[in-house]
Each structure stands twice: as C-alpha cells, then as structure tokens.
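Appendix B, Record 12. Input sequence as logged:
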Amino acid sequence: MSTWPMRTLRGLMCAVAAWMPSSASAGDLDISKLSSNLDLASLSDADLAARSITILRIGNVELTSGRIVASDPLVGPDRPALVRAVTPGEYPVTLYEAFGRVAAASMRFAEGRPVRWELAVIPGQDINSLKGDEFFGYPVDAGLGCYMDADTYALIQEREKQVQAEKSTSDINYYDDVLAPELEANKDDYAMHRPISGKRGNVAIFSSGWGDGFYPVFWGLDAGGRPLVLFTDFGVTENADGRREPGGQ
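Logged structural output:
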C-alpha cells in the first residue's frame, strides 16, 4: 500500500477566516475580501520588484483535457477538476515569492488584465451556500500545492506502480521515492514533475506559503468571461506587497 507523507511545516498558517468579514453573505460574496493579492497576476516585472516580490517562471503545464486540478499533489492528486475548463494546451506557471516563501501561484491562459475575478469551485460546491466567513478552496496537508490536468492523475498512478515494481513492494512513499530529488534541486520551492517520461502530462508543484492550511483559487476573466489566469493565494502577503509582513504596521 502506498503512502502520501506529510512534509515538515515551514511556519504557522494565518487564520483564513480573517480574509472575509463575518457580516458578508453568500449573495454578496466580495472576491476582494478573500484576497487582496490578485493584482500580482497583472503587475509588470518592474512593479513586482519594487514591491519586493520575486517571480519564478517555472515552465508550462501540459493540459491534455483542459480540466484543471488545483490541490495538494501528495494527499489530493485525485481531487475533482475545477468546474470551469480551458482549451487544452501548454500554459505557463508563475510563482510569486515574498518573505522567503511562495506567496502565490498563477497559470496564464491569455494576455490581458482580468476585469472580473471569481472563486474557483469543483462539482458540488455552490457559492450561494457560503455563509459568514466561509469560502471554498483546497486543503493542504503536505506543505505543497499544484496545478495539473485531471488526466495526469492516471500517470501518477502509473509511476507509482513502476516504483512498486522496482522496489518489489507495494509500500512506497511517492514524496521520498519520486518527488524529493526534483524539489530539492529547487530549494524545495517547486518542481515541474513529469510522472512518466515520454508521455504528455506534467504537474507544476510548489511550496504552499506558510505550509499546511486551506487555500482559495480564483479565475481571472476578461470582459467576455474568457479565462485569462488561474490564481492561488497562500496568504503570505497583503495588498500584493512583499515589503511589509501581513498585519504589520
């Protein structure tokens, strides 16, 4: 039986409930209250540098079906894909670092500044069911987040079987046996993981800010409702600014 281990926490997770006031209702869901960092996806390199935000362009994710999974890749690689899909293709992933941590991650589908943002959901999640300070996101228990195509999970399972055969045991650890060297090569901050060499379908894996927690994902849309960018906020910064610790004076 395979195991999906928990990585060491890099710090304490800020309380996510603080991102949305308790007086808000589902019908009045204000995305700006869920994240004040959405501008990171549109700022120029110069503006980001001026705000002490370091950008890492880690490569393209191959979306073979266009159905995107945003999850903890170790404990939730089988998480359902987001309801909204995109055209299959290869799309660049960018990480935004602040205070020595990955503060946010984005996947870009087209150029342009979003005119509207919406909370990303998976099947069965209803925005109108949210109450008070509730919001949808994905849980992290291994200190990592990811973007990948839903079809890529089958490749992860195939790689797992390969490792089991190589070690002559069903008890493997995907992080230690597969991912660790790839992440260590990038200071444990990220990896572009290809489960099966020669097969299309890879996974953009990145450190999840403060570590384990619960993180929202957002769609940035143009005036016609076309997805321009997918954005994950790990709660490390406020107001898209890395010059001052969140909550500082």
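The chain is about 15% helix and 30% strand.
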